[in-house]
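Below is how a single chain appears once it has passed through the pipeline. First comes the sequence as given, then the structure the pipeline wrote out for it. We keep one example in the README because the format questions we get most often are answered faster by looking than by reading.
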Amino acid sequence: MNLQNESLSSVNIVIDDRGTFNAIGADVLLTDCVIESSVPARALSIRATLTGGEFKTKVQLDGFFWCEARLERVKFSGRYRNNRFGHLPEFGLKGAVEGCDFASATLIDCEFYDCDVESLVFPVWPHLTVLHPKQVLTDLESHTISPPVSSFFEFLEYLDDDCDAIVRNVEKLTLPDGFPYDELRGLVSQVSNFCC
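Resulting structure:
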């Protein structure tokens, strides 16, 4: 599929050709459309403006960068791992994510850049959303935290300063003696800028 120079409204778009590169170009405007994708990130490019509607991935979308797309009030469902949303300067001026709903999606280590995170709806526990991660890192320094939980938060040190939020899924955390979920939830309730 190759969509270029189009303005479409209220249509269903199915992206299922794994054998070719599927592109929705920068000059495309999709309003209240439903996009269903069953292709991996390496076979997909989305640089369009999506306003309203839904994006559903039937396969886990790994390492996809939405930073050349403008996303406004889009509802996401399916599994997303290591995706980046929003504006990153190295991808140009267009990237944005505003008013989108991720409540029905599984997000694993997904990052949000240069955006109004308060306008977004994030999934609930076992997802843990860290808003303004650099500030959270500073706030965590004033708490006594066990090694398993402190190691869970080490990733915050390595995030780009422009990262406004990151969503992690904690349901797969395992340790030989079990992960201290209760401690993690207790800490989250004491530190601002967490959503779960």
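The mean pLDDT is 91.

See the next section for the split statistics.
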